[in-house]
Amino acid sequence: MCGIVGYVGYKSVMDILVDGLEQLEYRGYDSSGVAVMCDEKINVYKAIGKLNNLREELQHHRGEFEKSTMGIGHIRWATHGAPTVINAHPHTCNCGNLVIVHNGIIENYKELREDLAKKGCVFRSQTDTEVVAHLVAQKYAQTKDLAKAVREATKEIDGAYALCVMHNDCKNTLVLTKRNAPLLVGIGDGEFFAASDVPAIIKHTKKAMYLSDNQVAVLTPEKMVLTDIDGHEIKPKIELLPWEPVALSKMGYKHYMLKEIHEQPDVIRNILVGKLHAPDEDIILNEVKLTKETLKKLNRIQIIACGTSLHAAMIGKYVIENYCGIAVDVEASSEYIYRRNVTDEHTLVIGVSQSGETADTLTAIKQAKAKGSHILIITNRPDSAMAREADSLVPVNAGIEVSVAATKSYTAQLMAFYLLALYMAEVKESTSKAELTTLKTELMFLPQKIEQILANTDSIQKCAKVYSSTKDFIFVARGINYPTALEGALKLKEISYINATGYPAGELKHGPIAMLDETMPVLSILMKGCVFEKLLSNSEEAKARNARMIALTNSKDEKLDDLFENIIRVPDVEEVFSPLVAIVPLQLLAYYIAEFLGKDVDQPRNLAKSVTVE
Ligand code: F6R
What we know:
- This protein is α/β, with parallel strands linked by helices and 614 residues long.
- The chain is 37% helix and 21% strand.
- An eight-stranded antiparallel sheet has the order 3-2-4-1-10-9-11-14, covered by helices on one side. A six-stranded antiparallel sheet has the order 5-6-7-8-12-13.
- Helix 17 (482-496) runs parallel beside helix 20.
- The longest helix is centred in the last third of the chain and has 23 residues, at 433-455.
- The chain binds fructose -6-phosphate (F6R).
- The site of fructose -6-phosphate (F6R) has 15 residues, from helix 10 and helix 17.
């Protein structure tokens, strides 16, 4: 979604801003802009589309900002008003003295806008953000204190925001604040950075401070002053950022997505380190803060997530119920938050999120926490808002994921669920020791199996070529791989824009079968196990309607050669772990199809990496 970068110090600001925005590009955006303090006044430059358009615009004005050492920048993912230059940030007040960038959504912007219009403010854009520019400017006119003006203005604002503000009167000052949207300050020597996410500043500093809700930071080259919303000074909590700049390089791959798919064996190895030493030893999961007694008595779990994380959660349900005998409900966060939810202190609520910032999941977690549930968060971002809400934090350590389509973070989430389920099964003694040992042995071999798939992608590339011209695509599976079908379909539609759907194969004949004819590819995820034969029959039914049948399988059954026009083979694996092995070819299939079609693989249209609005 939107991204913010800010700088105040002694270096030439424009390169820092534009480079910082480039590092946030992966979040998804449709326009960009910067405001910099020039000799006499603040200048604003904006463009629609990709950052290159902004760079071109800046070329025409180089002389104006060469010496400038303070500014703010923004990439915008349109919510209120179309992606136009006028709606792009930064936004200014009427006289242009005050400039602002904003992430999030101002919920009461209509009321504020009407009120401000009555007081003489003239609105140029359709955005909610412009309201904040006028509101802060009004407060500044009364107080002549920018930090105070920001504090007073935010008291009147409902919604989510991360704000970065500059004023012509305050030549070397940036003012920052936030509520329900991330914002951090990077600390240098004689310089400060502001950013909505780590990649924007990690090149420059690893020393940082995350703002908490309603805090206001005033940055000048010499110092940072942090206050609460009433102006009381607070001691900043400075920490070291975990990311290495190299994580943001494509390392020779054409796209981040391809690089991240190839990182999956190592991601699995990393997750196992320190948690699983040997198959006959217990899993160590110190991150789970529930006592063993509570775990033994636990009889209900709710898992909340969105998108790809939701699919990981669905597999988590299957594994936990199977090995721990605990009832698990899985729900999309956006559904969870708008109904009466039955949860309490006896329920374990698990939130799953790559970014740890997804607005719906964050709200759901807060609701469950208010009802007294123990909150366990599975996230790739231990520095995120969700992580800060956690009673138990299980970081998945997949490393930064840049491509909008989630791949390695999904694998990492699945691993977290496997470890959690086996750990709880050990504590509860709900599965025999012998079976647990077999499962742990298999778990340790998973990286090699995925490496085998990555080393041999010919059949996947062939399928990609054959089916890249299709308009629709159906994925079917049963049991533990039904979520794999959903995830395979999600990957394909996200990056290729092909209308792809995942179905539980048994549901085909209850409706979807009507769509099948000789133009429709149907991919069956046929992994050996309890539903193999059933899925084979469902595939026969689809073949009888002339569908173009593809198998993704670990079976060598010869019957498959007659039934399927293309077969993607994967290594043999225990059924419970088959989702990990099956998803990799589906990620690659989506990737190669999108590549053939010339799509923007890493930044698909309309999508954002981190969905910080409901
Ligand atoms: C799909 C994808 C999205 C996210 C969803 C939740 O490839 O990336 O569907 O999975 O927006 O995001 P997180 O996991 O950050 O909560």
